[in-house]
Design brief:
Blueprint lengths: L1 E3 L6 H8 L5 E6 L4 H6 L1 H4 L4 E6 L15 H15 L8 H4 L4 H15 E6 L8 E5 L4 E5 L21 E4 L2 H15 L5 E3 L1 H12 L4 H12 L1 H6 L16 H5 L2 H17 L1 E4 L7 H14 L4 E5 L4 H7 L16 E4 L9 E2 L2 E2 L10 E5 L16 H11 L5 E5 L8 H11 L5 H4 L8 H16 L8 H7 L2 H10 E2 L3 H7 L10 E2 L3 E4 L11 H8 L18 H8 L1 E2 L6 E2 L1 H22 L1 H28 L4 E3 L20 H4 L4 E3 L5 H23 L7 H15 L9 E4 L3 H19 L3 E4 L6 E2 L7 H8 L6 H4 L9 E4 L14 E4 L6 H8 L11 E8 L4 H16 L16 H14 L6 H4 L11 H14 L9 E6 L9 E8 L15 E7 L4 E3 L4 H12 L7 H11 L6 H27 L17 E10 L2
Parallel strand pairs: 2-3, 3-4, 9-15, 9-16, 10-11, 10-14, 14-15, 17-28, 18-28, 23-26, 23-27, 24-26, 27-28, 29-33
Antiparallel strand pairs: 1-7, 2-5, 4-8, 5-6, 6-7, 12-13, 19-20, 21-22, 24-25, 30-31, 30-33, 31-32
Helix pairs in contact: 6-8, 9-37, 12-13, 24-25, 24-33, 25-27, 25-29, 28-29, 33-34
Length: about 1100
């Protein structure tokens, strides 16, 4: 008898010395590993037979078949571990990391078929583990034993305190064990033959794997926690029949992914922001979600800006223009501004009787209008009313927010939108997230990181650098509650063959038209000069109250800001109204002679009426009150352009001032000065007839050119956008009859403020008119089959700049440039859409007739004047949305707009939250498991080979998926997938993408693997030639070493940064030693073809 301590004398070495040709090897052990086979390969090839008993049930079907139930899953873990140990137990990970698993598996399978038989104990009865060698000359037994692995042989370190084995070579002892083994071996009740199951299992390692299999193996490991948490409650319930609905079947593949993800997020976290880029069809995605909840008998409210209401009302009404009439959508539609109203009705709903608390789902379109939560004591803001009455009171409300611009440069905006989802109590959400900090803290840290980033030099201010500055919790939070994909993402990573492509954008055309060619009329600069003389004191009566009387009015009209942060003075409200009016005049001057003329006339009337009241006061000397204008601001939408609502004579100002308390002579003098300026300007404008309006005439000839020389053959359509209804009416009056007469084409006009007009004989409503203009995208053949009219020219305001698909058209003209570049992009999104029939599309911009720098300086002058008092005059998001900090970046955007069509993602100097979420991958995995069942039995260390694709940046190299065995080490706080790591390294050993770029890496894997359910033979063949069928993997092992080495370097570099950045440091936490800290999950070889 001899004792082997597996330190100085190894069991493996002793077996090598004892096994001779013709020996019979019999083993009873809990597991078998191909690495133990590799260590004893030459000896095992000599044996006459090899009999192996698994001492606990392995590779046999068990009576518990429900693997998906979490509580039962525990029973499978030991068994799965035993089965997985075929490819290396957890302590043989280093061997697997040498990547030769495939070659060993192939040899092992051949050997098993020739020499070995495996049986498994099918009962729960425990069995002893031992090895017997039945040789012609000697019989030897070894015990105790844990398994047949490289660790048990003594060739690898395990975690056992000791690993001592007794070698018994006395024939009496050895014979006892041999008899015991033979007795069990022949017991058919007790054992079941599993040899073929093992061969099949080992085959799976060395057969070529399909790329799709490796993609799902990676996802299964990375997101296995997510799978365990998932239950039926948070997934769309198929039994509702939502997949049969019309709207669901209209969705493209990427929209379905979004809809499923939204339902999952609404069920898990009660809220979701859908922020897909312009032109990706958010409205339809939202309608599919609404349909799902209506099928579950939930009450739904859609809150949208007034200008978009018609679009939403189209889909819940029994109208011919409603594509989804058969779905019988039944949601209510109200406007954002209805939250500030308490009387009257809105689309037939009496506002004083709305049961705000009874909605199960609220869909907020353009939710960025609810960014601002500055509160006033005596007046509840729209945001607060939404939060209190709709979200917090009554039934549990889920909130879906639709927004193309959810993040600007203040993260509080995003936080306030999210607060709607968690009812203002942030712990409701943070308890469900895997974050370590509260939501307030996460946003605070993100804001600090953002502020530091925004101070960097422009070339260092890249998307990548901000992603590295933000921490794990922020991504976790965004990933949980947002879905945001860019056009680029959809084009690159989705199969869009059925949908079609985005059209090619031509370089924008920019025109600078003077106001008129007449020499006797002031030019743009001259008019601006005159405008700067205006005081607009008609809007600021409070400023003229005598000092002795001012206290009386302050007590009456100033409101305390909540939390005692100061007061919102009426005088400030008036100043912001003055600034708003000056801006309005400028914008209307830029828009058209007509819009400017009409505003000047309105001003003239206001001044004349006010001066009449003063004259009356002088005559009678009685007590006369004057109203103020600020009341009119309360009904304004956050981005309202038409300020026609502001007229005290129609509103009846709330603020009443007695003229006896005012310095009337000064006010009268200022009003008369303003009146003189207005008279001069009006006289100038009256001189310009439509024939002398240079911009109008230029537009007309430009349109004629387009009609005669279309950019896509036969397409004569064009949309003309303006910010003002007055300009739209003016263009329609002066263009429509001429186009009909000269070109025999019909024109339509929609402004949102009056009934739509066309040159056709019949009159049409808003949706029908748009259907005639874009018959293919609006499916006219289905909804208006008997009407063969068509409209080719459409004049519209921003009431059609969102939520409309007008992609039949290929030409979009901005007759005026909106001061916010986002609006320009949203307008262009009407025709710049996926699936367009047009090969190319053209954007045309009309700029004021001054240089861009003059234009921007003019804007800055006005905006800075507005900045003097930056108050939210309505207690809502500031009507003066321009912030001076944004001026510099808007300057850059406007400059860019002259040469190219910019993406919404590029517009924000802030963080674009598009393309950060990992939701698509989770949904992929869930659907795969639904169809194909559990993936837990797949061995680790597998690989697939895919071709390199220059277009998507997929260059030859390897993408490794690894697991950090030492869970406490996070090379974070950067890695969102910890303890899993993805890293992409090219053939030269350079890192293409490191573990902080999770989304990009998974996108690459998905794009190259999904849909490839068979191995790609051409590249597999090349790979096998290069590696001698997997026997020589030294190059790839080297790359794996380099990949891990680079991660250690990244961590050290970030640690040093974090020490000096003033944020919590990662420098003193555990570090990564190297290869031994990692287990290889799978790898994807990108092979040059």
């Amino acid at each position: 008898m001899k004792i082997l301590d597996n330190i100085n004398s190894l069991l493996g070495d002793d077996l090598k010395a004892t096994v001779v040709a013709g020996s019979k090897l019999k083993i009873a052990a809990s597991c078998f590993s191909i690495y133990a086979y590799e260590a004893l390969k030459s000896e095992l090839s000599k044996v006459e037979s090899f009999e192996f008993i698994f001492t606990a049930p392995t590779f046999v079907p068990t009576e518990v078949t429900d693997k998906l139930r979490k509580e039962r899953r525990e029973f499978f873990i030991p068994k799965l571990n035993r089965e997985h140990s075929l490819y290396g137990s957890e302590f043989e990970i280093q061997l697997r990391n040498k990547l030769t698993q495939r070659a060993i598996a192939r040899e092992c399978a051949d050997w098993i078929r020739n020499k070995a038989t495996f049986k498994s104990n099918r009962s729960k009865a425990p069995m002893q583990q031992f090895i017997c060698i039945d040789g012609e000359e000697e019989k030897v037994a070894y015990m105790p034993l844990n398994g047949f692995t490289a660790v048990d042989m003594g060739y690898q370190r395990g975690d056992a305190v000791s690993n001592i084995v007794n070698r018994m070579d006395e024939s009496a002892h050895a014979s006892t064990f041999l008899q015991l083994f033979d007795q069990i071996w022949n017991d058919k009740e007790q054992l079941e033959d599993v040899t073929s199951a093992i061969c099949d299992h080992i085959d799976s390692v060395y057969q070529e794997n399909s790329p799709e299999r490796i993609y799902f193996l990676m996802l299964y490991n990375i997101f296995n926690e997510f799978l365990e948490e998932i239950d039926e409650d948070v997934l769309p319930n198929d039994r509702t029949g939502y997949q049969e609905s019309l709207v669901w079947n209209k969705l493209f593949n990427y929209q379905r992914d979004a809809a499923t993800g939204i339902i999952n997020k609404l069920e898990s976290y009660n809220g979701c922001i859908l922020a897909d880029s312009v032109g990706l069809g958010k409205t339809f995605t939202a309608l599919a979600v609404i349909k799902y909840y209506e099928l579950r008998n939930r009450a739904v409210l859609v809150l949208c800006p007034k200008k978009l209401a018609d679009n939403w009302l189209n889909y819940n009404s029994n109208l011919k223009t409603n594509l989804f009439a058969k779905d019988r959508l039944n949601y209510d539609v109200l406007c954002h501004t209805d939250l500030s109203r308490t009387s009257g009705d809105s689309f037939g709903i009496p506002l004083n009787r709305v049961n705000w608390g009874n909605y199960d789902l609220v869909v907020i379109d353009e939710s960025h209008n609810f960014r601002n939560n500055d509160a006033y004591k005596d007046k509840e803001t729209r945001y607060q009313k939404l939060m209190r009455q709709v979200v917090q009171e009554g039934v549990k409300t889920k909130v879906l927010m639709l927004s193309a611009t959810p993040v600007n440069n203040r993260f509080t905006d995003l936080k306030n939108q999210l607060a709607l989802a968690y009812e203002g109590h942030s712990d409701l959400l943070s308890d469900k997230l895997k974050t370590t900090r509260s939501i307030e803290e996460i946003f605070k840290r993100a804001q600090v990181a953002f502020n530091q980033w925004s101070k960097l030099a422009p070339e260092a201010r890249t998307a990548q650098s901000i992603l590295q500055a933000l921490d794990f919790d922020f991504f976790e939070l965004l990933d949980s509650v947002t879905i945001a994909r860019s056009r680029k993402h959809i084009e690159t990573f989705y199969d869009t063959k059925d949908i079609g492509k985005f059209p090619q954008r031509r370089k924008p055309l920019s025109y600078h038209s003077p106001i008129t060619h007449r020499a006797d009329v002031l030019d743009m600069n001259g008019i601006v000069e005159q405008l700067s003389l205006l005081k607009l004191s008609v809007y600021a009566p409070i400023s003229y109250i005598l000092p002795s009387r001012i206290a009386k009015y302050e007590a009456l009209y100033d409101t305390q800001v909540e939390g005692g942060k100061g007061s919102l003075k009426q005088v400030d409200r008036e100043r912001s109204l003055q600034a708003l009016m000056i801006t309005n005049l400028l914008k209307r001057l830029e828009s058209s002679v007509e819009a400017f003329r009409l505003t000047l006339s309105a001003l003239l009337r206001n001044h004349t009426k006010t001066l009449e009241i003063i004259a009356q006061y002088h005559q009678s000397g009685g007590v006369l009150n004057i109203g103020d204008y600020t009341a009119g601001m309360e009904g304004l939408d956050a981005e309202e352009d038409d300020l026609t609502a502001i007229d005290p004579f129609s509103v009846g100002g709330k603020v009443q001032i007695s003229l006896a308390d005012m310095d009337v002579p000064s006010w009268e003098h200022d009003l008369n000065c303003d009146l003189a300026v207005i008279d001069v300007l009006l006289a100038e404008m009256e001189k310009i007839t439509p024939a002398e309006d240079a911009k109008l005439q230029h537009l007309k000839s430009h349109l004629y050119q387009k009609i005669e020389n279309p950019i896509n053959s036969g397409n004569k359509k064009a949309i003309i956008f303006t910010a003002f209804a007055d300009t739209a009416n003016y263009l329609y009056r002066n263009l429509a009859p001429a186009i009909l007469q000269d070109k025999h084409l019909h024109t339509g006009k929609v402004t949102g403020s009056d009934t739509p007009k066309t040159t056709l004989k019949q009159s049409y409503d808003f949706q029908s008119l748009l259907t005639l203009f874009s018959p293919r995208s609006k499916e006219k053949a289905l909804i208006m089959p008997d009407d063969d009219s068509e409209i080719d020219i459409l004049i519209g305001t921003d009431c059609i700049s969102e939520g409309q698909n007008l992609q039949d058209c290929d030409y979009l003209i901005n007759y005026d440039i909106h001061w916010n570049p986002v609006r320009i992009i949203q307008r262009f999104g009407r025709i710049d859409r996926i699936g367009s029939i047009n090969r190319e599309i053209q954007l045309v911009n009309y700029w004021p007739d001054i240089t861009l720098d003059e234009y921007i300086n003019l804007k800055e002058r006005v905006e800075n004047r507005m900045m003097i008092v930056d108050v939210a005059a309505t207690g809502d998001d500031n009507v003066l949305t321009a912030k001076s900090s944004e001026t510099a970046y808007r300057k850059e955007q406007l400059r860019k707009l002259q040469d190219e069509v910019i993406e919404l993602e590029d517009i924000k100097t802030g963080v674009s939250i598009t393309d950060l979420g990992l939701n698509d991958f989770r949904m992929d995995l869930l659907n795969h498991i639904k169809e194909r069942g559990d993936l837990s039995s797949l061995p680790k260390g597998l690989h697939a080979v895919v071709p390199a694709q220059e277009g998507t940046g997929l260059e030859p190299g390897v993408i490794f998926a690894l697991r950090n065995i030492n869970d406490t080490v996070n090379i974070n706080q950067q890695n969102r997938l910890h303890p899993y790591y993805l890293i992409y390294i090219n053939r030269e050993g350079e890192v293409v993408a490191d573990q902080s770029e999770v989304k990009r890496l998974l996108d690459w894997v998905r794009a190259s693997c999904k849909g490839h359910s068979e191995p790609i033979q051409s590249v597999c063949h090349r790979f096998n030639q290069q590696t001698e069928d997997g026997r020589d993997m030294s190059d790839y092992s080297q790359l794996l070493q380099q990949a891990i080495h680079s991660m250690v370097e990244v961590k050290e570099e970030r640690d040093i940064d974090s020490l000096f950045a003033g944020v919590s440091t990662t420098a003193l936490l555990d570090t990564i030693q190297g290869l031994d800290d990692f287990e290889l999950i799978a790898f994807l070889v990108v092979q040059a073809e």
